[in-house]
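dumping the sequnces here before i forget
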Amino acid sequence: MAKTDQSKSRWQRFLDNDIVYSFFTTPGAIIAATITFVAITAAFAAPLIAPYNPFDPAQISLWDGKLPPAWSDGGSSAYLLGTDNQGRDMLSTILYGGRISILVGIAAVFLGMLLGVTLGVISGYFGGLTDTIIMRIADVQLTIPGILVAILINGIGRAALPLELREEFAIYVVIVAIGLTDWPQFARVARGATLVEAEKEYVQAAKLIGLPKFTIILRHILPNTLRPVLVIATIGLALAIIAEATLSFLGQGIPPTTPSLGTLIRVGNEFLFSGLWWITFFPAIALIILVFSVNLLGDWMRDALNPKLR
Amino acid sequence: MNFCKIAKLSSVALIMATAANAENVFRWTSQGDALTMDPHSQNESPTIAFNGQIYEALVARDIEMNLVPELAESWTASPDGWTFKLRQGVTFHDGADFTAEDVVFSFNRALEESSDYKEQVKTVSSIEVIDDYTVKLVTDGANPILPNTLTNVYIMDSGWAKANGVEKPQDFAAEEETFSVRNSNGTGPFMLMSRAPEELSVLNRNPNWWGDSMFPGNVDRIEYRPIKNAATRVAALLSGEVDFVLDAPLQDLKRIEATDGLTTKTVAQVRSIFFGMDQSLDELRSSNIKGANPFRDIRVREAFNLAIDKDAIQRVVMDGLSFPTGIITPPGVLGNTPELDKQYGFDLDKAKSLMAEAGYGDGFEIQLDCPNNRYNNDEKICQAAVAMLAKIGVKVNLDAIPKAQHFPKIQKRISDFYMLGWGVSTLDSHYVFTYLFDGEGSWNGIGYNNARVNEITKLIETETDIPKRTALIDEAWQIIKKEMPYLPIHHQVLGWSMKDNVDVPIAADDHLRPKYVVFK
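..and the predicted 3d for all of it:
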């Protein structure tokens, strides 16, 4: 930590923070953060900035279907990235689709984090049989590729729902499926941090003065596990977005009525052979940029927060 | 490993070995599998076509849709019925002889409650067995088109059916599972060797088939693998994984044609695509309008008709390969006239004012049920309709599902608004009336019931005077054209794609007939 100096302004002190310093001296981090920020803002502001609402059928005209991007032959300036087979503006569908992708990603990571950190901290603090059971379950799950676990949970979730509710709840099923796939990473990291913290003197002191276990975990240990968890969460977000896109691409995820980027790529795939490349190309590019920038951001954060690399 | 497993493995090895030895293996794909192997359970075209490789009927249609003898060698009409001379020396795949008894059994089976072929055989009041190879189908009156209606009524072996407890057809809507659903025993050119629904069906040539020397086909083995995703189907053809694709996306036909070693064939199909609007209920299930059924108001039905831009669907969704229409029976079928074929047109302003007049100026909400693996671009047509109806204020919730779940909704009459396509195997309007318009029709999912149309449906079953009969058919269509119980979209165009080392003659009913398929 930089030395606190009361003579400097708050802003100065903020800039002196080593993480902030690292951020402003790493161009990759600045670019990644900017793109991520723009992507997330654009996705959340989709209803405000998208030229059309692709899910308002009254705004769609079939006669405008299958138009190529504005710069190619036969394109129309009204549709920058062209239109899909139904006459929906590609740019707008990508903005709306990105929103779903990011929302599902964030929610899934949050669920995984909640579950993983809870189990990890419990495991690390109590040790013994509890620890063994929780960590062996995590180990077993880690031996199976995440996407297979997600497909399994997703499949069970869908089968459990009555047919007419499947589409409506598909998005929640996907969130739960990815969240349940994510948790072992979080549990391991949180457990490790807990083991380190629990040995420290302030925790020993808290135990001595008779604070209840729950308070110690919540007030003293948990806050100190959050740094590494945050790193995992950022990288996990990129993975969750990819996992959702994979599920949707396989037709197991988000339905076409409220498509995510993965669904858009899948639907567009049908038109590749007939030369309508833009229906699948632009959502794919959007997905790549989004995941790449989130990943870069996560990488930087891992380096910046790792005391050994400083 | 136990003996069972070893036995299984060695039989797999055996099958693979025979596959390698088989000369002409015809591998093909389409989007949806046959629904059942039971020949009388589902009157659905891909199911009929698939079972037509295994089972045979008394009469059949050739590639040009002419009536030709199959299990009957000849037939003659008399005022009270038709006499069929049966083919002699025909055996079923299990070796049993084909005789008049099997014909009687199969017709009775097709009349059972769970049969989907009742409409095709119900004019037959009884069957007289004259000798082992002659039967007389006695009808209530002279049925002038009886042979036309028999092409899909397949003949089963009575002994096999009794031995396996399948004397009644599978009740498909009730999801019944019987022996005949995955096993079969017909007289046809191919025998079912193995069947994994929606995965792989393997058929081998029947070495004892009666028609071996009469048909040009030289396919020894058929492997059918349904592939739901259209792009994957085309990829399978481009990569050489399959020899034939029944339903490549229309927009891809040009690309396939331009590829070396591949070719396409197109023909106008005997099939119309339309929407059904339930008029039987007092209140629709999926609508926010309570206490009234908007579809009962002809102005709403007309507004729906005028709001759907069929030309846009033809140009953009179908890539020009369809014929927009105003009647749900294609040209080539007795009853279709150029005047009836004219579509209702597209007029958004009039549609809006009709909705307002009917009291639905603000529109309403409704669910549209649509198959997603049956017709050319079925789901995409429905999506386009959703957008078009939104422009007259109707909020349509689209439920696009596989045909195996979609069709029971129509037959159980639990759909408010649905897509259906109807092919006319008899090439006569009676087939359309009796299934889709007659108050009792089993595919009349809209509950349409017009006394005169019902009466005409009955009358044309026995009317032998051709001009009079044609006039009756036309009268019924005029009533229907005016009342608009269904919303016609277009007649389909078929596009078959294949490798050019195999000749697959295209048929307007979209039925693959492997007995005509020739490897060059």
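The interface with chain A takes residues 229-231, 234-235, 238, 249, 251-252, 254-255, 309, 312-313, 315-317, 380, 383-384, 386-391, 396, 398-399, 401, 405 of chain B (CB under 8 Å).
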